[in-house]
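Note to self: keep these together.
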Amino acid sequence: MRSAGRMLLDMVPESALSKRIIERLELKDDRVSDLHVWQVGPGHSAVIASLVTHEPEDPSVYKARLNGLHGLSHVTIEVHTCPGTH
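Structure:
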């Protein structure tokens, strides 16, 4: 029941995972502006991350930065160009 309840209530997995995701995404001038991480099954987490950057890349570049993080089953990345100068 506890495991099922965590999934039904969209409980956030350990905060260490969120920190590792941010560390991998925030390279150069890329900044995470919004991050949602939730458990979608036993040992599986979903991620939606919004990034703001002066030099946007294809979302696949940012997804590749998360390769090797155990348990990420569904990753959605949106990239926004930062207005103004650096």
